[in-house]
Amino acid sequence: MKRSVAIFGLLIGLSHGAWAATLSGDAEAGKALVTACSACHGADGNSPAPTFPKLAGQNERYLLKQLQDIRDGARPVPTMAGQLDGKSDQQLADMAAFFAAQPRSGSQTDPALLALGEKVYRAGVAERGVPACMACHSPNGKGNAPAGFPSLAGQHADYIASQLEMYRKGHEDDTGRTNDGDTRIMRSTAFGLSDKEIQAVSSYAAGLK
Q1: Whole-structure pTM over 0.85, yes or no?
Q2: SS (H, E, C) the chain
Q3: Domain 21-100, CATH
Q4: Does 2-12+106-206 carry CATH code 1.10.760.10?
Q5: Cross-strand partners of 130
């Protein structure tokens, strides 16, 4: 637990500097910019398909960074190719504000994965140096909005798992997901998780409220 708290404190310190210039978004202005997004993410940001993330209720600061990273190529997402081209930082901030303001629908934890998922989420995997997920994503899965850490509660379990797998790939292969900053916290964490642990913790996090 001390290791998890130490990592959390380090990330808080780093994130404040990285987000010093975060823009303030206008949800009403963002509403007019997200029409095309509804095809995959739902009109209110609650995607009906588990392969596409729910954007509703996501922490605004985190969502803005992801939109910027996708636009700028720091986070390649093939299904998003060209979707954000030409969007200004202010427009992306407005879009993030709109989705953040929408209530997120819930998800369910698979009972068969509950015990293992809860263990990984709340205690990590000490023998492999994997910190507890709740250190950054909070005990209730709502994340840490001021620090820019995402909310996982209610997200599609399949989507969470796919991102953990991409982070794990990114630990050694740049074609994986690598936009977790210089600390590489998500890449290092995911690299220490087995396939079964990824499935279990994803299911557990999705079912949090």
Answers
A1: yes
A2: CHHHHHHHHHHHHHHHHHCCCCCCCCHHHHHCCCHHHHHHHCCCCCCCCCCCCCCCCCCHHHHHHHHHHHHHCCCCCHHHCCCCCCCCHHHHHHHHHHHHCCCCCCCCCCHHHHHHHHHHHHHCEHHHCECCCHHHHCCCCCCECCCCECCCCCCCHHHHHHHHHHHHHHCCCCCCCCCCCCCCHHHHHHHCCCHHHHHHHHHHHHCCC
A3: 1.10.760.10
A4: yes
A5: 125
pLDDT, tens only, 173-196:
999 999 999 999 999 999 999 999
Q: Is 53 within 8 Å of 158 (Cβ atoms)?
A: no
Provide the residue ranges of all domains of the chain, joining segments of one domain with +.
2-12+106-206, 21-100
Closest CA to 59 of 22, 7, 91, 96: 96
User: For 113-123, what is each residue's pLDDT tens digit?
Assistant: 999 999 999 99
User: CB 173: neighbour CB atoms within 10 A?
Assistant: 10
57-110: per-residue pLDDT in tens?
999 999 999 999 999 999 999 999 999 999 999 999 999 999 999 999 999 999
Mean pLDDT taken over the chain: 92
Q: Going by C-beta distance under 8 Å and a sequence separation of 6 or more, which residues neighbour residue 33?
A: 87, 91, 94, 95, 98
21-100: same fold as 2-12+106-206? yes
pLDDT for residue 67? 98
Direct distance between the N- and C-terminal alpha carbons of the chain, in angstroms, rounded to an integer = 23
